Every structure is written in C-alpha cells, then in structure tokens.
Amino acid sequence: MQLEIITPESKVFEGEVTAVQLPGQDGLFQVLNNHSPIISTLTEGTVKIDLAVAIETKKATKLNSLIQLDASNKIIRVDVKGGVIEMLNNKLIILAE
C-alpha cells in the first residue's frame, strides 16, 4: 500500500509499505495491504511502519529527522502528538501533529 505522512511543516514520508501500526484513541491498531476504508483519529504515540523494501544505507542518511530507522533498514518509526488517518483505495494518509 502507498503511505504518506504529512505534518503542518512538511511531508515526512512517502513510499510503499506492507503494514502500519498506529496509536488510536482506544489503543494500538494496525492497517495492512488492502485494508477496508477507514478514517480514525490518533493520540500521542509512535507510528511503526513496515517498509515493502529496505532503505539503502545511502538513502537512510537523507530521511526526515522525525524518522527513526531500525537496524534492518526495513522498519521505521515516527513519533506523533496526534492526528488523523484515512485509508482509501490502498492508500494511507496520515495527517500528524
């Protein structure tokens, strides 16, 4: 699925992912490929993203400073203070604070 993470300041991330774990009002929830349409609010927490393809080491240094990359270069995390998500037609948009 295609993912975009947008903050008031900039687009933090755009790319192909396989799963996204999000901090919802009632706890953590996960969105996978071909998830049904959903709109939800987010609370403060960490968004965990499983990338479709590992990020090359050269490109890892160019990531937005809000992104934390794990050792495998295949999982990234972004801390959010809240926000809203929309999943539609296999595209997930996160409007984050």
Describe this structure in words.
By secondary structure, the chain is mainly beta. The protein has a single domain, classed as Sandwich (ATP Synthase, domain 1), CATH 2.60.15.10. The chain contains one helix and nine strands, in the order βββββαββββ. Strands 1, 2, 3, 4, 5, 6, 7, 8 and 9 form a nine-stranded mixed sheet that branches. The longest helix has 4 residues, at 57-60. It is globular. It starts with a strand and ends with a strand. The mean pLDDT is 91.
Descriptive terms for the model:
mainly beta; 9 strands; 97 residues; single chain; 4% helix; ATP Synthase, domain 1; nine-stranded mixed sheet
Helix fraction by DSSP (H/I, runs of at least 4): under 10%
Which structural category do the helix and sheet elements fall into? mainly beta
Give the radius of gyration: 12 Å
Instruction: Count structural domains.
Output: 1
Rounded mean pLDDT is 91
**Low-confidence sequence ranges:** none
Total number of strands = 9
Name the helix and strand elements from N-terminus to C-terminus, one letter apiece. EEEEEHEEEE
Gross CATH architecture: Sandwich
Query: In what range is the share of β-strand residues?
Result: over 45%
Query: For the record, what CATH class applies?
Result: Mainly Beta
Which fold does the CATH topology refer to? ATP Synthase, domain 1
Q: What's the helix count?
A: 1
Q: Span between N and C termini?
A: 22 Å
Write out the CATH superfamily name: F0F1 ATP synthase delta/epsilon subunit, N-terminal
Most strands sheet? 9 strands, mixed
Q: Characterize the overall form.
A: globular
